Amino acid sequence: AAGAFDALIKIAEDCPEVMVEAEGAGGPPLAALLPVLLEYLKCPVAEQRRAALDVILPFAVENIMGEEKAVPPPMVPHMEHYLAGLGALSTDPDPGVREKVCKAIVRLLVTRTEYVEPHMSSLVTFMLQSTADMARCSSSSSSVALEACEFWPAFSYLSEDRCTPKMMEEVEKALPSLIPVLLNNMVYTQDKIVELMEENELQRQRRQKIEEGGAQTATISDDQPVFHRSRSRATSKTTTADLDEDGGDIDDDDDDDDLFSSDDNEWTLRKCSAASLDALSLAYGPRAVIPPLLPCLQEGLAASEGPQENPWVAEACILALGAVGPACIEAM
Question: Longest C-alpha distance within the chain, in Å?
C-alpha cells in the first residue's frame, strides 16, 4: 500500500490532469479513485490516513482544468464528503494527520472559500484549538500549531469579494480567545531560551578572551539584550580582534559561530503568530484587537519585574506591540 500511495502522491503533485481527463467509457480515473481514498481517511493506520490526505488535496485546491477557481468535475460530487472527512480527522490522535488537516483547511480557505464559508464557525473553533496545540515540548505539536496558525493571516488577506460578513463575524468572535494564544506562541520556547543563553555565554567568553588579549575593539556589544543577540559576526572577514598574537583564531574551536545556525530565514510558530496578530489588527482595527490584547500586554510586561521575573514574556509583548503598531498605534 505504501508504494501505491507514493505513486499516487507523485501523480497528484506533478501531473494531476491525467487523473481528471476522461478516458473511455469508464470516465476519468479520479472518479473511481476518490471513493476509495475517502474510505482510507477512516483507516486505522495513521500513515495511510496521511497518505490519503496528500493524494486528495491537490484535486481539491488546484486549478487543474485551467479554469480559475474551478473544482475538477470528478471532485465536485465528493467535496462535501471530503470536508466531512477533514472534520472527522480534526480530533485524530496522530499529530501528523492533524497537521495535514490544518494545511488542507488553509488551502481550501484561500482557493475554495465557497466550500469553507458554510462551516466557518466550526472551522474557526478547530483552528483556534489547533493554534493552541502546544504541548510545546513536542515538535509534532508545534508543527500542528504552525499549520493552524497560517489560517489567520490567510483569512485576513482574503479579498472583500470572497470574505463574507458572516466569516468576518465568526473570526471576530474568536479574537478574545485567539489573541492570548498568539501572544503565548510568541514567547520563545524553553529549548530556544536554553539555546540563546548558551550562545550568550559563548559570546561572553569570547569577549572576555578579547579583553584579556588586549584587543582594542570588541565584536560584541555590551548592552545588547540576550534575546536580541546577533548570531553572526559583524563582518564576514576575520578582524584583528579575532586573532591571537600568533595570528591564529583566538578560539580553540574555529566553529563556535556555527554551533548556532541562524534562524532568520526559518518560518516558526513565533513568527507566524506575530504575522497573524499583524494581519488581524489590520483587518479588524483597534476596536476589536486592543480590548483582548491590552490586559495580556500589561500582565506580560509586568512579568519583567519582581520575584517571578520573566524577561522572555516581556520580550514577546514588545514584539506584539510592534506587530499591532501599524493598525493600532494611534488608539493605544
Answer: 86
The full set of domain ranges for the chain reads 2-172, 193-229+241-259, 269-328
Residue 188 DSSP code = P
Q: 44: exposed, middle or buried (C-beta count within 10 Å: 0-12, 13-18, 19+)?
A: exposed
**pTM of the full predicted structure?**
0.78
CB 89 within 8 A of CB 98: yes
C-alpha 248 chain-centroid distance: 43
Q: Which CATH superfamily is domain 2-172 in?
A: Leucine-rich Repeat Variant (1.25.10.10)
Query: Rounded to whole angstroms, how far apart are CA atoms 151 and 160?
Result: 17
pLDDT at 251 over 50: no
Q: Which amino acid is at 326?
A: P
Compute φ and ψ for 249, nearest 5 degrees: -70, 140
Are 148 and 95 within 8 A, CB to CB? no
Residue 107 has pLDDT above 60, yes or no: yes
Give burial (CB, 10 Å; 0-12/13-18/19+) of 214: exposed
pLDDT of residue 305: 67
